[in-house]
Design a protein that fits this description.
Binds the lower part of the 30S subunit head. Binds mRNA in the 70S ribosome, positioning it for translation. By secondary structure, this protein is α/β, with parallel strands linked by helices. It contains 7 helices and 8 strands, in the order H-E-H-E-E-H-H-E-H-H-E-E-E-E-H. The chain folds into 2 domains: 107 residues, 2-Layer Sandwich (GMP Synthetase, Chain A, domain 3), CATH 3.30.300.20; 107 residues, Ribosomal protein S3, C-terminal domain (Ribosomal protein S3 C-terminal domain).
């Protein structure tokens, strides 16, 4: 039986960094719970707006939320009205989950634009999930998603897999397509991995996307 490991977790500390950056010994479990709640809230609220990832940085009495998205205008809104509404909702969510409510903590939000959404696994996976929810044929989605990803110069290999009751069949099954290289066991290989769920009338379909973007030391040599 094969043992599957998340490609990002497998490379943490080697070529990948942590999405939460802080250090705390006494309040570690409290900070971890707060990060999990905030990230889950933002993911559910912004997943339809081209969300890639959410990074959290902490300092003394301050939390910085860095939201990477391909549609920053939809989140910010006219004159920054959208970002203010989002900040108020985050503060209410944070106050409800935090343990030490006497300590004042400032929450800041920074929006960063994703310039190449076709080369981002999370955006690609969510796009495929949206198409499955609209009842498009899954084979067409697999082929079109793979072709769009491989058109980007950064992507040297791609793989997409869907699992569930595809096209409403009685038994669940798994279908996948791949193109190019996919060295999952090479630590220096930059693998962009993401998962998404499509909530259809006949059940949930899971989508997994792998994008291989070359080796890290090769990129450094090219830059030099």
């Amino acid at each position: 039986m094969g043992k599957k490991v998340n490609p990002l977790v497998f490379r943490l500390g080697v070529i990948e960094g942590w999405k939460s950056r802080w250090f705390q010994e006494k309040k570690y479990k409290d900070f971890l719970k707060e990060d999990h709640t905030l990230r889950g809230f933002l993911t559910g609220k912004l997943k339809k707006l081209g969300l890639e990832k959410i990074e959290i940085e902490r300092s003394a009495h301050k939390i910085l939320l860095i939201i990477h998205t391909s549609r920053p205008g939809l989140i910010i809104g006219r004159g920054g009205a959208g970002i203010e509404v989002l900040k108020n909702e985050i503060e209410k969510k944070y106050q409800a989950v935090r343990t030490d409510k006497k300590e004042k903590t400032e929450i800041k939000i920074r929006i960063e634009e994703v310039t190449k959404p076709e080369a981002n696994s999370q955006i690609v996976a969510q796009s495929a999930a949206d198409q499955l929810e609209r009842r498009l044929p899954f084979r067409r989605i697999l082929k079109q998603t793979l072709e769009k990803a491989m058109q980007n110069k950064e992507v040297k290999g791609a793989k997409i897999r869907v699992s569930g009751r595809l096209d409403g069949s009685e038994m669940s099954r798994t279908e996948w397509l791949s193109k190019g290289r996919m060295p999952l066991q090479t630590l220096r290989a930059k693998i962009d991995f993401a998962m998404a769920n499509a909530y259809c009338t006949y059940g949930v379909i899971g989508i997994k996307v792998w994008l291989y973007k070359g080796d890290v030391f090769e990129e450094k040599k090219d830059n030099e």
